[in-house]
Amino acid sequence: MAIYPILLWFFLVYFRIGDQSLANAIELLFIGFLIVVTSYTRAFFLNRFFDSPSHISIISITLLLITVIVLRLAMPHIPE
Predict the structure, then answer these.
(1) How much is the pLDDT for 14?
(2) What's residue 80's pLDDT?
(3) pLDDT at 21
(4) Residue 53, SS3?
């Protein structure tokens, strides 16, 4: 689950989608933090209350991928 948002972020950076600046390092740290929080939330809370862990995983990955795209497009330019 954790590799897909990072791969999408590298894909967006490689094709120069979004602003290219010092903010890129901040984005990657924030994405890593969100992956950890989402994984723990899914493992300790959501899997206990819902019957289908695979649906929860798909929803978690989809939300993370949407967050990566929005973060990449909305991050302001930070001068270097």
Answers:
(1) 92
(2) 67
(3) 81
(4) helix
16: left (phi > 0), else alpha (psi -120 to 50), else beta? left
Q: Half-sphere exposure of 9 toward its Cβ, with a 13 Å CA cutoff? A: 23
Low-confidence ranges of the chain (pLDDT < 50): none
Question: Would you state the pLDDT for residue 44?
Answer: 87
Question: Which residue type, as a one-letter code, is found at position 79?
Answer: P
Residue type, 38: T
Under the phi-then-psi rule, with left for phi > 0, alpha for psi from -120 to 50, and beta for the rest, what region is 20?
beta
Q: DSSP alpha helices (H): ranges in 1-80?
A: 3-14, 23-41, 47-49, 53-74
Which residue from 58, 62, 64, 65 is spatially nearest to 38, judged by alpha carbons?
A: 64
